[in-house]
Design brief:
alpha/beta; 14 strands; Purple Acid Phosphatase, chain A, domain 2
Length: 344
C-alpha cells in the first residue's frame, strides 16, 4: 500500500502497526502532522471507539446550561428590628461643629428608634485636676445651657426617638471628684446628687443612664462610655474594644477612646463584636485649651470622628453594629452612607 497519511484506511493501519512517530518517520514528516491528520480524519485513539470523539464534541455543544434555583432566604416580613444611633464624646464646649451637624443629618436620615450620647457629652475642663489654659472660660452654667441647645436640636432632628445619655469620666466623674476634694460638706446634698436635674435633662426629654444599659436584653448588647484605653503603640484602634469585650463577655459599644474600631470573637459562648464609637469632639479646640496630651497646635491625636448605628431585635440576639466615619476633606465635613453624602 502506497504511503498516504491523507488516506484514513492507510493511516489507521500504519498507526496500528508503526505508532504515531513510526508513521511520521515512514512518511518523512513531523509527528504533529500525523496527529493532526488522525484527528482531522476522525481516527479513534487507543482505547476509544471510532465515534467517541465526535460524541464528546456533540455533548459539549449541547450539554444543558444550569439555570440555578432561587434562594430560599426571604425577607423577614413582620419582624420588627429597632435602630439606635450612638454618638460618643461630644466634650462640650470642644465639640466638632461640622461633625455634630453631620450627626444631626444622620438622625434625620435614619429616623432611629433611639439616640444615645455615650458619655463625656460635657467636658467640664475647669473641674479637672490637670493644668489648662488660664484664659479658658470658667462658666459651668453657660456650658450646661448651651449644650442643652444642642440636645434640643437632636430632639428636632429625631422627634420620635428615645433619648439617652450615659455618663463618662469627664462629666459626672469630674463633678463628683470636685465635690469630694474641694467641698466635701456639700457632697451629701441631695440636690447635687441629682446630676440629671443639674444638667436640665428631664424637661427636654433626655434620660441619664449612670452605669450604661443593655440595648436588647441583659448579657446581650451593652452600651456604655467605657474605661479601657490602649495607646497607639499598643495597637490603637479596636484594642480597647477587645479589652471591653473580655471584661463584659458580650457584645457592646463604648466611647472613651475617641477612636473607631471593632473586635470580633467566636467561641463556645457564641458570636459577638465590640465597637469603639469614635468621637464628636474637635481635637484642635482641645489642644488650644491645653486639655489634651499633645498640646502642640500642629500635633495630631489618633482620634476618629464618627458614630455608630445599631440595628437589633428588641427581644432576640440578632444585631448589626455599623461604624459611620465622619470625614474631613477640602474644608468639608461629611459622611457617606450607602452612596448618600451627609454633609455639614
Amino acid at each position: 500500500m502506497t504511503p498516504d497519511y491523507h488516506d484514513p484506511a492507510w493511516l489507521t493501519q500504519s498507526i496500528a502497526e508503526r505508532g504515531i512517530r513510526g508513521t511520521a518517520r515512514y512518511c518523512g514528516v513531523d509527528h504533529t502532522t500525523i496527529l493532526a491528520a488522525r484527528d482531522r480524519l476522525g481516527i479513534a485513539r487507543p482505547g476509544e471507539t471510532p465515534d467517541s470523539a465526535a460524541e464528546l464534541l456533540e455533548y459539549l455543544r449541547n450539554r444543558p446550561v444550569p439555570t440555578g434555583k432561587p434562594s430560599k432566604a426571604k425577607a423577614a416580613i413582620g419582624r420588627k428590628y429597632a435602630t439606635e444611633l450612638i454618638g460618643c464624646d461630644l466634650q462640650y464646649p470642644f465639640h466638632h461643629e461640622g461633625a455634630f451637624e453631620v450627626f444631626l443629618g444622620l438622625c434625620e436620615l435614619f429616623d432611629p428608634d433611639g439616640v444615645t450620647l455615650n458619655g463625656d457629652t460635657w467636658d467640664f475642663p475647669y473641674l479637672s485636676r490637670f493644668r489648662q489654659n488660664p484664659l479658658l472660660r470658667n462658666d459651668m452654667q453657660a456650658d450646661i445651657d448651651e449644650c442643652r441647645d444642642l440636645l434640643a436640636r437632636i430632639n428636632t432632628a429625631s422627634p420620635r426617638s428615645k433619648k439617652r445619655m450615659t455618663v463618662g469620666n469627664h462629666d459626672l466623674e469630674r463633678f463628683t471628684n470636685y465635690l469630694y476634694e474641694k467641698c466635701p460638706p456639700l457632697a451629701k446634698l441631695r440636690v447635687l446628687q441629682a446630676f440629671d436635674a443639674i444638667l436640665g435633662l428631664p424637661e427636654i426629654g433626655w434620660e441619664l443612664v449612670k452605669e450604661g444599659y443593655w440595648l436588647n436584653h441583659e448579657r446581650g448588647l451593652r452600651v456604655g462610655h467605657g474605661t479601657a484605653v490602649t495607646n497607639t503603640q499598643g495597637g490603637g484602634s479596636a484594642q480597647s474594644a477587645k479589652k471591653e469585650m473580655l471584661k463584659w463577655s458580650c457584645a457592646g459599644v463604648t466611647g472613651h477612646t475617641h477612636r473607631l474600631g471593632a473586635f470580633y470573637r467566636k467561641d463556645p459562648a457564641g458570636y459577638r463584636v465590640w465597637h469603639e464609637g469614635g468621637c464628636l469632639c474637635d481635637q484642635k479646640k482641645m489642644r488650644a485649651a491645653r486639655v489634651t496630651v499633645h498640646t502642640d497646635y500642629d500635633a495630631c491625636e489618633d482620634w476618629h470622628l464618627g458614630c455608630i448605628l445599631v440595628t437589633y431585635h428588641p427581644d432576640g440576639d440578632a444585631y448589626e453594629i455599623r461604624d459611620i466615619p465622619i470625614l474631613e476633606s477640602g474644608g468639608r465635613t461629611f459622611a457617606l452612607v450607602d452612596g448618600t453624602e451627609i454633609a455639614a
